Amino acid sequence: MIALVRAALAASRTARRAGRAALTMVFAVGLLLPAQGALAVQHVALAAPAAVALPPMGWNDWNHFHCNINESVVQQTANAFVSSGLKAAGYQYVNIDDCWLAHSRDASGQLQADPAKFPHGIKAVADFVHSLGLKLGIYEDAGTMTCAKFPGSLGHEATDAATFASWGVDYLKYDNCNNQGIAARTRYQAMASALKNVSRPIVYAICNWGQETPWIFGPQVGGNLWRTTGDISDNWARMLKILHAQVPLATFSHPGAWNDPDMLEVGNGKMTATEYRTHFSMWALLNAPLLVGSDVRTMSATTASILLNRDVIAVDQDWGGEQGHRIRVSGSSEVWAKRMSDGSVAVALLNTGTGRATVRTSASAVGLPGKSSYTARDLWSKATRTTGASIGASVPAHGVVLLRVS
Ligand code: GLA
What we know:
Blueprint: H1 2-17, E1 22-28, E2 43-49, E3 57-60, H2 62-65, H3 71-84, E4 93-95, H4 121-131, E5 135-141, H5 157-167, E6 171-175, H6 184-196, E7 203-206, H7 214-221, E8 225-227, H8 236-245, E9 258-260, H9 273-285, E10 290-292, H10 301-307, H11 310-316, E11 325-330, E12 333-339, E13 345-351, E14 357-362, E15 374-378, E16 384-387, E17 390-395, E18 400-405
Parallel strand pairs: 3-4, 3-10, 4-5, 5-6, 6-7, 7-8, 8-9
Antiparallel strand pairs: 1-2, 11-12, 12-13, 13-18, 14-17, 15-16, 15-18
Alpha-D-galactopyranose (GLA) binds near residues 62, 98 and 139.
């Protein structure tokens, strides 16, 4: 066992040095500590490099809960991952955003959780999340304070990375508030180096809102994803603006290093089901991280039917050599395409207008080889049809028809 642990830790260090995300296999060794009640499961975390690091899938509290976050919400969310089928569909990161911290560091200079919100501390939450076969993410900031004015990590990177590793954190979202005007590359490199020095692989999510070209410095410092824009909000215009901001960035992502157009709003209630299907389809086409931003403990059937659509998830979780990108725009009709690793092409026929419209493209325009006919599967209606070289559909206002054409 000890040799196994050593080998795994060595593999983990190798993976970090290579700047890649790594999978963590967590083995529950079944030491139940009654004193810590429900949160008590002890683990030995063994790390192994991922065969291919896919866009992270999970949840983050911010879009729905903002600062109203606590241990119960995180635990209940982790349980809901299992009971709702999110875990089975591939969602694994349960991510805590801003406001988890106490207002000051402890006497030894270490970060500490707010004792009212997280009375058992973050390690206990991580242990609980791990006991369900899920992973825990946390939030910090590359400045003197987080955006909500809790202690930041600027100048404390090594200490804080070691603290996160000791708690069993698997994912760090690293924000950009109160940054003292220091160059982003310098600040994000400092935390990247600190994370490389801990024995645990921690996915590194750079969140500096697309400033100072994170798609260039992000992968260079070993970031696994980087936010490309300011914050999303739960409305069509903002979601569409963020989608359009991705158009020039398609070439910057690759396995283990992804453009992040921000967390999902699906299920938060201010867009229609059609708009949420568009949001989810387009994020999948972009190989975006799929981080659910709604309350999954009370997920409606409609929200579940969107977030659990495995055909759409499969588009997100496939690397066919490039992120999906827009190939044509004409008024409010847009065609986006993404090559899939099996040779098929995911095609999004998008109608951003306010009335129904027919959106068309062709097999050659989306990169399919010349054939007399093609099979097109609609990833929402599940209907399959045979089509000639012209690929088109009638699309409702603010809607998308997402096809997988082979
Ligand atoms: C910034 C980030 C958001 C969220 C908040 C928390 O605005 O971009 O995603 O983390 O901070 O304060």
